[in-house]
Amino acid sequence: IVVTNQKINVAEANSLSEVFLECVLAPKFTEAAVKILSAKKNLRLLEWPELTSVQDAFEIRSITGGFLKQAIDRDFVADGVAALNQWKIYGDKPNSAQLQDLLFAEKVCSQLKSNSIALISDGQTRGLGMGQVNRIDAVKHAIERWQQHHPKQNPAELILASDGFFPFADSIAEAAKVGIRWVLQPGGSVKDQEVIARSQELGVNLIMTGRRHFRH
């Protein structure tokens, strides 16, 4: 399933037609794009003009005997980033390209189910780990997916983003072991200083945003 917040034109339709898909959802399809994509067997095209303007204030999760109503982090979804002046940087200062990947990584990670880890480079997702019972497993799963699907990607260019703080330094060590040098996380653990020290020891640039994302 592919979802886009942009109109699907001929160029996008040609790219999408090269891979197996079951559904494409977009605010708009041009007539030419529909003709191209309609040639694919069993592909469903869903056009939703209001896709980017839905204003639901909460989500519902079912539980035994009732339901849980949880607020959506709508401010973050709208602007995509936490306030940069809240960031604490331990290591090198990111350049403009790295900054864009850091912001994108946080946005991607905020929409995954906890515990979640996102690996990003060049504005693209390279590996995801989510829904795990601990953070180190989420890190390992994200790394496995990156290594399996993007084996040529230089690990030094990857941004590893976490939706919650690191309770231990083991995740930092796991990232450093495969060559990852940029980690973004909210901070707030009682072991923050231990995590910072381990990052500096291993040459990992650590950024703490001060804003936690933990979607259930």
Structure, described:
- This protein is 32% helix and 22% strand.
- With 216 residues, the protein is of the alpha/beta class.
- The strands form three sheets. The protein has a six-stranded mixed β-sheet, with helices on both faces.
- Strand 9, helix 6 and strand 10 form a beta-alpha-beta unit.
- Helix 1 (10-16) packs parallel to helix 2 and helix 6 (170-177) runs parallel beside helix 7.
- The longest helix has 15 residues, at 96-110.
Total strands: the figure is 11
Strand content: 15-25%
Structural class: alpha/beta
Unreliably modeled segments: none
Distance between the termini: 21 Å
How does the SSE layout of this entry go?
Layout: E1 2-3, H1 10-16, E2 23-26, H2 31-38, E3 44-47, E4 58-63, E5 66-71, H3 74-79, E6 88-90, H4 96-110, E7 117-121, E8 124-129, H5 135-149, E9 159-162, H6 170-177, E10 182-185, H7 192-202, E11 205-208
Parallel strand pairs: 1-2, 2-3, 9-10, 10-11
Antiparallel strand pairs: 4-5, 6-11, 7-8, 7-9
Helix pairs in contact: 1-2, 5-6, 6-7
